[in-house]
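Suppose you are handed a protein chain with no further information: no name, no annotation, nothing but its sequence. What can you learn? This example shows the usual starting point.
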Amino acid sequence: MVPSDFIKRFSMQPHPEGGYYSSTYQASLLIPQHSLPDSFQASRPVSSAIYYLLEQGDFSSFHRIASDECWHFYAGEPLWIHALAPDGSYTRTTLGPHQGMTFQYVVKAGTWFASEPATGSSFSFVGCTVSPGFHFDEFEMAESDWLISQFPEQASLIKRLCRGPL
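A reasonable first move is to predict its three-dimensional structure. Written in C-alpha cells, the prediction is:
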C-alpha cells in the first residue's frame, strides 16, 4: 500500500500538527474532571486512539498534550520521535520493524515532542493511544522562539520541526 491507500481506506483527514489522522476509538467510560490533574479542563474518556500517517517531507510539529501518548508502529518505514522532556533532556526514538528500533514508545504527559519519517523513509503509518483520552483543549502547539529559549541546544531541530501555535 502507498500513503494514498491508507488515507482513503481509513478516511484520514489532515491533522493540525501535520500528517493525516483518523480517530479509531474513544472509550465510553469517563474519568470525572475532579479526579483528573488540574491540566484537564473537563471529564475525559479513559482512553482514545487514532491512526496517524506521515509522508517524507512532512512532520508532526512540536507540541505537547496533558496525557501520556503511546505510539505504535504498523506499516511503512521507520519514524523518528523527538522528545524534549521537562527536565531538559532530549531523546530521539525510532519506531520501526528493524533491529535497534521499537514497535511502541510512550511520550509522557507534558513532554514537548515532534515526529518525522526517518531519513530514507517514504512514509510511516502508526497509531497513537492516549490515556486519559485526547481532546484538542489540552493540545498545545509549540512556538519556536519560546521552545528554543527552553531548549537552546536543540535550536536547529526546533526550527526545522515547528509550525508555530495554532
